[in-house]
Amino acid sequence: MPRFLTLADVCEQLQISSAQAYALVRSGELKAIQVGGRGQWRVEDVKLEEYIQESYAKAERMLAEGRRSHSAG
């Protein structure tokens, strides 16, 4: 895999739309840089992996919170 991915590559990897990928970059959830005269977005492969790992961690926290709230009720 190349070091830098296009947003189209990110879309393919995460199986999301281009609008969703751009929203992740705009929000800062997915770190990216702009390159070239046309300012095309590129995502470093390690940043995509970091985003994926953080997404797993968020899901685990959410599930743990759900289990706690259900057991407390």
UniProtKB/TrEMBL annotation:
Lineage of producing organism: Bacteria, Bacillati, Actinomycetota, Actinomycetes, Micrococcales
Residue ranges annotated for the Helix-turn-helix domain, each copy included: 4-54
NCBIfam families documented for this protein: excise
InterPro entries: HTH_17, SinI_DNA-bd
Protein name: Helix-turn-helix domain-containing protein
